[in-house]
Amino acid sequence: MTDITNSPTLLALAKAHGGLNEAAQAVQAAVQSAPGTGNTGASPAAEHQPIRPAVLRAAQLARDAEERARDRQHVKGKLTARERLDLLLDTGTFEEIGRFSGGDIAAGNAGAAVITGFGEVYGRTVAVYVQDFSVRGGTLGVAEGRKICRLMDQALAMQVPVVALIDSGGARIQEGVAALTQYGRIFRKTCDASGFIPQISLILGPCAGGAVYCPALTDLIIMTRENSNMFVTGPDVIKAATGESISMNDLGGGTVHSTTSGVAHYLGADEADAIDYARTVLAYLPSNSTAQPPTYAYMATRADREVAARLREIVPENDRQPYDVLDVIRCIVDYGEFVQVHELFACSAVVGFACIDGRPVGIVANQPNVLAGGLDVDASEKIARFVRLCDAFNLPVVTLVDTPGYKPGAEQEHAGIIRRGAKVIYAYASAQVPLITVILRKAFGGAYIVMGSKAIGADLNYAWPSSQIAVLGATGAVNIIHRKDLQKARDAGQDVERVRARYAAEYERTTVNANLSMETGQIDAMIDPEQTRGALVEGLKLLAGKRRMRATPRHHGNQPL
Description:
GO molecular function, one term: propionyl-CoA carboxylase activity
Domain CoA carboxyltransferase N-terminal: 48-297
Organism: Bifidobacterium pseudolongum PV8-2
Strand content: 15-25%
Structural class: alpha/beta
CATH class of the largest domain: Alpha Beta
GO cellular component, one term: acetyl-CoA carboxylase complex
Number of strands: 17
Low-confidence stretches: 37-48
Keywords: Transferase
């Protein structure tokens, strides 16, 4: 890091005098004894490049501020802002912007409650701002807002991702509406950057009130099990307004937002885990929407064929028997490495990042282990948001389908399954990145259409031999189609279940299998399970040249929200 605190001359002075404080005193004394000479006489190291007392004072303040930060943060089990930067960025790559901006060196104030600058993650430039809770509780005032906005302007000009590490008491009350105005400016710039450069927020402390909407507007929110909190109104306000008593963790802790509200996309075990997840995600994303994601060297081996062969045994023949779709995903992606997003939320759907033959992709899959892989309101929003993220940043989407349809019931209808389920349709229908879909087992009703069907815009669609595609499953369809026949059998004293089973078997033979979809062109090929990875590799190569097209001159669509 380029900074006066690392100046060789300054370090030599500190060493010669036994510390920065002593060096500052010596320099000040030399200046007072020989004013106007420009020679401090403090050290041979400073003879050719004298150090002004104000510069030494600034360095001293910076060192003291970090010591105070360690004392205040470590007792809470939290890292300092600069320690967090060290974990996030490649070693020695951080270049700070405006270190003393917002400070008053003469009055002993080292700077604002936010650190801004640029660094590298796996060799690629990112912009980063880190709120420093050890300075005025990390609150945001005019100086902090200006630093963040300037950084975002530079990030947009340089077309690089922005990573925010949040640990703040919110708007600085003493600055009133001037502080609130800065949040408005940050909101605006975050919206300007949305879909153009990746934006990731790590909540490593409190984030309350209007401040929560800064991370809410970004692409991914990462929280930790301890210390992370997000809420619009805190426990004290809630108790005063409603009489309800609730702790900060139960109201807006990392676990709540990762499992219940869906606000957080990842729950880190600690700060190091959370920061490592941010680094990992950035490795799959391009620097901006005009660039392609990075590619990685991958050499196919005999082990790939052995892993692919396992796919024959993962999905049970009985279509009512659950299995873990993660086992399927690990068999088709490079090295079995899959980075889940929203892992603990809406678990009937699985989304995340992986590489196939060295190319980053987004994976969307139904999870038969949870609700049989059915789509509910939360799973629909989870999938839609992820597909939109992939489409914004040029990641192909691979969809693995095994779903009986949308989850039925009054609860879901009243929760808005029509409005919220439509988000999946909008996401897939408007996506212009390569879309490849594989039907593993069941694809029924509207869920078949929305989960990356050919009709909604997918480029390549494959099906396993055991796949079933229909408006309804066999049992449900027979109960409707043969309702009168079943009633007649019951009136005649026949075994109704045997009659129903006969009709169901006939329906599966003629309607539910994938042949009809192949004949109408909705499925491009029937593939054996062990062919899946190979089909995806070749499909991604084929679609590598796919480019965006503007279908209409509209400003933007009015998607369901």
